[in-house]
Amino acid sequence: MPQSSQKSSDLITDEYRILHKVAQAVQSPVGLKAMLREAMLAVTDFQDLKVENKAGIFLVDEEKKVLRLFHTVGKFSSEFLERERKVPFGDCLCGRVAVSGELLMSESCFTDARHERTFSDMTAHGHYIVPLKADAKLIGVMFLYTNTHPVWYQHSQEVLLSIGGLIANAIQKKQVDAALEEYSSRLESLVERRTAELTSANRKLAGEVEGHKNTQEELRRLAHQIQGIREEEKGRIAREVHDELGQSMTALKMDLSNLEKKLPAENPDLLKQARSMENLLDAAIKSVQRIAMELRPPILDAFGLCEAIVWQAGEYEKRFGLKFDLNCLEEHAELEGNLKTALFRIFQEAVTNVVRHAEASAMAVEMKINDGTLQMEICDNGKGIQDAQVRDSFSLGLIGIRERVRPFKGEVRFLGTPGKGTRVVVRIPIQKT
Ligand SMILES: Nc1ncnc2c1ncn2[C@@H]1O[C@H](COP(=O)(O)OP(=O)(O)OP(=O)(O)O)[C@@H](O)[C@H]1O
Ligand SMILES: [Mg+2]
User: Fold this and answer.
1) 411, β-bridge pairs
2) Which ligand neighbours the alpha carbon of 424 most closely?
3) Where does 62-153 have alpha helices with state H?
4) Which of 35, 269, 313, 348 is the most exposed place for a label (fewest CB within 10 A)?
5) Domain residue limits, the chain
6) Which ligand neighbours the alpha carbon of 414 most closely?
7) Is the pTM of this model over 0.85?
8) CATH numeric code, 3-175
9) Residue 219 CA to ligand 1 centre (angstroms)
10) Which regions of 308-432 does DSSP assign to beta strands (E)?
């Protein structure tokens, strides 16, 4: 084989060997700097191109239009490392490649006018400056030290450009990986922070809800207590009005009729006046009795719930012309005092609602005890309550009914059928007495 063809085939073998080493280096799973070090060491092994064991890589800072020294292999002075940290685009050899994006060869640092930067310990050397391009975008520049007047023929240039492409792609991939990793760790910490915030907000909210519940409970107890006090007060006033005022008026009436007997018969005007006073007194006594009864019917305490309902229904019949069908069992007379009062007031509120809203002509009230549950049902034949009215938080009358049932762990339902009427059903767990 002729010597020159032997040489060129050796060179090609060497180029492929180095390309292969670089390809291996850029695939290694190490960090970016270690990977670039392996790749640059592989390139500096390029004996036939007379590359020295010195090389370095700049990365492009597109925003600032500078190259930043990222990594080197081989021995560099600290002066070099310090001054070359940043090279503006267009400056010296590497800055020129940053602008042109083309491979550059420099014969000698002392004769090449483009080699603008010089260093105190500089010895004669040449350069290959390789653009690092990924997808046609320049992301860095690799500088290789060579002997002066390095070999420069077409084939080597292509190999160096391919190596530049491999390295550029590897850098880009690592940068994307790093960005992704940073993004995902930021995301993770964000999620962690948000989770922590949500947990604490949740805890705070739970505390507030608990607080509200307690306040609500307290308000309920208070309302219940006030209702009890009102009932007692009404009872007391009813007794005083009935007993004291009623008795005084009855005494007055007796005195008046005694007086009447003593009036002289020849003065009929006086007699007439006394009779009229007597009639007024009768009306006043009735009013006193009615007021006392309405405040709190003594019948409720004396005879029980059924009797009180019968009496109250009779009053309503007279006053509003409503027909009542009552179905109450006598045994309920023995209900506990507060429960008796609550059921009686519910009955009154339900009938008041019928009178005010239902346009009904008849009502039915039924009370029974089944399996330890007392059920009171108050029905009318009016227009029927609507669901929205039942749910309305401003339906204070209905809320009052619900609150009266609550202390007894009972439940109440308002069931309306349009045009047919309304049923108010109260159920309270109870021990049969
Ligand atoms: N028996 C009924 N038939 C038809 N509609 C009714 C009946 N009972 C209640 N409603 C409707 O439900 C609403 C709420 O009743 P609720 O007793 O809460 O309030 P109210 O009677 O209007 O006022 P108050 O707070 O003075 O009782 C009424 O306004 C009425 O429209
Ligand atoms: Mg009402």
Assistant:
1) 427
2) 1
3) 78-83, 92-100
4) 269
5) 3-175, 303-433
6) 1
7) no
8) 3.30.450.40
9) 23
10) 323-327, 362-370, 373-380, 411-417, 421-429
